[in-house]
Every structure is written in C-alpha cells, then in structure tokens.
Specification:
- This protein is mainly α.
- It has one domain.
- It has nine helices and no strands.
- The chain is elongated.
- The two termini are 31 Å apart.
C-alpha cells in the first residue's frame, strides 16, 4: 500500500500544476487502448485540487478516453496480429477474446457501454470491437455515453463533497485501494470466468 500511497500523493501534488490537464488527457487516452492504470485517480486528484473546474476536467477525461478507445478500435481493426494480440496476452485473456466477439455479435453497443462504465477492462473491448469489426458509429456512441457518464459522475461526486472527500480519501486510503483493486479484479474475473 505504501507504493500506491506514494503514487496518490505524487498525483495529488502534481494535479494543481499547469501540466495536469495534458497529463489527464494522455492517461485517459492510453488507458482506453493499452495502459493498465485508469485515469480516475488523476481526475479525482485534480477535482480535489481545483473543484470549480470539475466539468472541464471530466470533459477532457471523457473526450480523451473516447479518442483512446477509437485508437484501440483501430489497433484491433488493422494491427491485431502485430500489436493487439500482445495486449490481450498481457492480461492473459487470449482464450476469452473470442467470447467477447460473441458478446459483440449479440449486444454490440451494450457490451461497449458496460465495459466503458464498469470495472470491466475497457481496453480489451476496444481492441475486440476493431478486431471483430463491429459498427464503428455504434462503438463511438456507446463509448461516448458510457465513458462520459462514468467520468462526469466521478467528477461531480468529488466536486459535490469537496474537501471532505479528500479527508476521507486520506483517512481510508488503504481501504479505498483495496476496494479499487477488488473491483478491478472482479472486472477481469467476469471476463475470465463468466464469458
């Protein structure tokens, strides 16, 4: 937990610098296609640091995430053999990738929306969407709705409860870290064992 606490403290200090917004954009973009760390941590830190800009931060996070998802779609569509399979192997989900394709055949937009809003690994769904060539406008629309809903909800909650959220995060940081990783694990578990 000390490692994650150090990262949290670093992000919180950095969140109020002039480079916070570009960093949020970059992390949101790459997380949607291959990077394992979600942008929520930086978004929370930035809203805690400058609550009045929660709408702007949430919007940037959402736009970057959807653009990153489109990049993931492109990797899956054009470079699955060259790049995409390595990303899937990184998460040890090769044998479930076809089942994600079946999920897309039945519920294209809903599958993207579920991955975009929940702890399901969105990056795998973006790659699969391109690899299985689901309808691109449907993919973009579902991504835009689900990712915006997620990041605006996070931004609003932090804005609404302001400094007390920071106090709660500081006091129960270890507990929140455990809950976060349990949710992340459950997302991977759902893909590995339910699909």
């Amino acid at each position: 937990m000390k490692f994650f606490r150090a990262i949290y403290d670093w992000v919180l200090r950095w969140a109020s610098t002039p480079y916070a917004l570009p960093a949020l954009f970059c992390i949101s973009f790459i997380e949607s296609s291959f990077f394992p760390i979600p942008p929520d941590v930086l978004l929370i830190a930035m809203v805690v640091a400058v609550p009045a800009l929660w709408l702007k931060f949430s919007l940037f996070c959402s736009i970057a995430s959807v653009l990153g998802g489109m990049f993931g779609y492109f990797i899956g569509y054009q470079f699955m053999d060259l790049i995409g399979n390595s990303i899937v192997e990184l998460y040890h989900l090769q044998h479930k990738f076809e089942k994600i394709g079946d999920l897309y055949n039945e519920h294209q937009g809903w599958a993207v929306a579920a991955a975009g809003f929940t702890p399901l690994p969105y990056k795998l769904f973006t790659l699969a969407a391109g690899s299985f060539k689901i309808d691109f406008p449907t993919f973009v629309l579902a991504s835009a709705i689900s990712r915006s809903a997620r990041f605006f909800l996070v931004g609003f909650i932090v804005y609404k409860f302001g400094p007390p959220i920071k106090v709660v995060l500081e006091k129960y940081f270890n507990l929140f870290s455990i809950v976060f990783f349990v949710l992340l694990f459950l997302g991977f578990y759902l893909i590995k064992f339910v699909l």
